[in-house]
User: Fold this.
Amino acid sequence: MRGAERPIRLIWSSPAKTGSTMRIPDKNLDCVIYLYANAIDAKHGKEYGGSGFLALVESERVKGRYWGYAVTNAHVIKKGYTVVRASVSDNQTYIANVKEKDWYCSKTDDLAVHNIDIPYQFRATSIHKNQFYNEPAFADQLREHAAASSNHIGVGDDVIMLGRFTGYDGIQQNRPVVRSGIISLMPAVEITKPDGVTKQWSYLIECKSLSGFSGSPVFVYRRNPGYPFKGPKDENGGVFEYESWLLGIDWGHLPVIEEIYDDTKQEEMRKTPFRVNVNSGFAGVIPVQRLRVLLDDPKLRKDREDEEMELDKQAVKKKTAIEDTAEKPRKNRDVSIPPISRKKFFAGLTRATKRKAD
Assistant:
């Protein structure tokens, strides 16, 4: 994905004529990736693994140069689901046979990234780093369009999750589903994960996360307060009604332990010693700020810098080779035969004929 053109910005509009709350362009779903145990499973779309998405980090030195990363949960990678399947142009998929050692896992969060280089011609949809939710930038953007009663996100704001619903996720091509909800709890404290040990700074959103959704991107969106006059515009020059930002990454759902009762005897309900975990309807979402920290990790920054230096060296060699090649024809032009007139040509031909006759 290095040197790719500027990525498709994930901004969603809602044409009034449809009467819907919001319409998500199909191409925006293509930022979602699926994780599989091996390339064969990825090719045949086996119903195991997790979700993720593609993110872009722009070069700090060369405008228009990008570093692409596959993003998911560390627990997805550690369970062996390391192979990436991405949706690309022309209804195709691109499979990257990535090994566990090639993923870089956060030491503090349930996050993992891999520097993935999808060939330019596939034009995969990605989330640019400047689309990550950032409190000051978010507030400034709202103030720029119009005065708003609240310049920051909070409890009750609308969210969307794009992920993999196993069994209906597409065999030959990724077919992610969309789930919607609201922010129920801001990340003020660490939430203990279902294993009872691991803790994770998280938003709680009222949106069910099911098996296969781990690693899904979650977006917060709002109606553009400047609509229909101010704000980002679509390809036809129309102002988008809704705008979205990457809020974070889904890591799973919070269970509720329910007791099981025996109702075989209608006259009474008897409690049994058995318990069952029930999906509470709340999903845990790692704040995107934690992903920003991971992408700015010294090791990843050094990897980008080293590769950037190598790209610069290759560019210099390529340029030098072209200049040397351009010089050679000029040397050849110096050794040329001067043109002669018609009269001189026939005079010389006559002299040569006479010498041959003698």
